[in-house]
Fold:
Amino acid sequence: MIRQLGLFLVAVVLGAALFWMAGGGGPGQKTASTHDVAAEVAGVAPETAPDPGASPRQRLRMSSRREQPREPELSLQGTEVGGGFAVDAAGNFVATTDAIAVFEYFLSTTGELSPEEILRRIQAEIGKRLGPPADAQATEFLGRYMSYRDRARALGAGHSEEAGLRERFQRVRDLRREMFGEEVADRLFGQEDAAAEIAITQREIAEDPSLSDQEKAARIAELYDDLPEPMRKAREESMAAIKLRQDEEKMRRDGADEEQIRRMRVERFGEEAADRLDALDREDAEWSSRLLAFRQERQRIRSDSSLTAEQREGAVARLMEELFDERERIRVLALDEIGE
Structure:
């Protein structure tokens, strides 16, 4: 159990470093290189863009002929741009995790939009929020960030199986400092690095044959005290939610009714939080009911021998459109894909 817990946290934290920060895209989900960034910001085709080694002024020159971004894709409809941009007292751009959140908001449409269109949208967002000189500085940071993503992805793909987790993560840390400098890298990735260090140490403890299970548990518990405050708080909240569900399941097995469950929630989290949990329960129940009804009717349609294959397919598609909105349809397809 101790070893499994260690592997889980390592996978979550190190995976974030080697996968999400590397772009998170699978095969076929192309992301733009730094050269493409310079090209799109300059408003010319990548093959005719200024070389990435050119000066920032040359690379960041914007053409008045650049296309205006189209309306957001379905995956972004009904959402707001996450993150934001910061400037110092002199009006200079300051690289922050919030700026990366803006970039990643638009980069989440990789596979829906072309890399060029995604970059145009990011540049439009920069131009909307920032004026000189911060806008050009933010665009330069975007170029470096995209280059970092490219190189991090290549680094992750190039790891040998013999390389240990600590060695692999150190390569990522070295790349970050090379790309952004030590001060900015610490600002952008410091908390993530600290969490990864704890996760790797946790795995080393879990796999140490010289320690008993009790000693391993004690040392791992001590590691959590060194987590950055936001991560420690998030872990505490996650553990509280897990404990709540476990206790509720036990109470129901023991015959508790919903009023008793409600009282327990109020005692632990207060009336307002209990109301939110009750609302989530109702939403989950409504969703489960619709999903079950859809699957039952879909099975009936698929079993109807009086329909052609094309008619069955069309009837299922219409049924899905009647019961679910666009986001819910994506969720249904994903659940079908994983067999849940």
Remarks:
- Confidence is low (pLDDT under 50) at residues 1-70.
- The chain has 14 helices and two strands.
- The first strand starts at residue 86 and ends at 87.
- The beta strands are 86-87, 93-94.
